[in-house]
């Protein structure tokens, strides 16, 4: 290949590069768009509170606990038995032992390693807290490592809560 051929190839590459840069600059001039000072729309986000100690929830929990049955709770708890122990002196499994859970501080089993979210959750396992947690654990306490989807039926939650309460040295009086 002689030098004339090389010059033609280099010139073609330079022309293409200059055309791409030139077309970009020319299109910016032709299609200039004013950017608005304020956004075209504003998205409003409501803050959702997970507080469970309002009077309305206490009224709801009374009605809820009235529909539950500890015998049904025992049957339903079979889903939980693979991860939790319910017998007195039972060992921790994937989840903590649940004997004496109602009325106990959240994250209160000393020899179990809780998620940071549950360890920092400064509440007790009341009927209201258990109901909220069993509805959807990951939503009730964000950051929990409990990967259970939750119980949708109110009767099922009330039954399991009654069963958990029954498995205690001193069951908490029902609301």
Q: Identify the CATH homologous superfamily of the largest domain.
A: Cytochrome c-like domain
What's the β-strand tally? 0
The percent range for strand residues is under 5%
Principal-axis shape equals: elongated
CATH class of the largest domain: Mainly Alpha
Give the SSE order as H and E letters.
HHHHHHH
From the alpha-carbon coordinates, what is the Rg to the nearest angstrom?
A: 32 Å
Indicate the topology:
Blueprint: H1 3-30, H2 55-67, H3 70-76, H4 116-120, H5 127-135, H6 137-140, H7 154-166
Helix pairs in contact: 2-7, 3-7, 5-7
Structure overview:
This protein has 175 residues and is an all-alpha fold. It folds into two domains: 1-30; 55-166, Cytochrome c-like domain (Cytochrome Bc1 Complex, Chain D, domain 2, Orthogonal Bundle), CATH 1.10.760. Helices cover 45% and strands 0% of the residues. It has seven helices and no strands. The longest helix has 28 residues, at 3-30. It is elongated. The termini are far apart. The model is unreliable at 52-57 (pLDDT under 50).
């Amino acid at each position: 290949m002689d030098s004339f051929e090389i010059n033609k190839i280099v010139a073609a590459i330079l022309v293409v590069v200059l055309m791409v840069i030139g077309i970009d600059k020319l299109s910016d001039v032709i299609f200039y768009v004013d950017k608005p000072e304020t956004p075209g729309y504003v998205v409003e986000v409501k803050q959702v509170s997970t507080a469970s100690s309002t009077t309305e929830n206490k009224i709801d929990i009374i009605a809820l606990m009235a529909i539950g049955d500890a015998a049904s709770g025992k049957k339903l708890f079979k889903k939980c038995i693979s991860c939790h122990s319910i017998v007195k002196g039972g060992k921790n499994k994937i989840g903590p032992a649940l004997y004496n859970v109602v009325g106990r501080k959240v994250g209160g089993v000393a020899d179990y390693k809780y998620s940071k979210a549950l360890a920092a959750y400064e509440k007790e396992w009341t009927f209201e807290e258990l109901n909220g947690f069993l509805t959807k654990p990951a939503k009730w306490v964000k950051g929990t490592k409990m990967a259970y989807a939750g119980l949708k039926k109110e009767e099922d939650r009330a039954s399991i809560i009654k069963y958990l309460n029954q498995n205690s040295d001193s069951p908490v009086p029902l609301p």
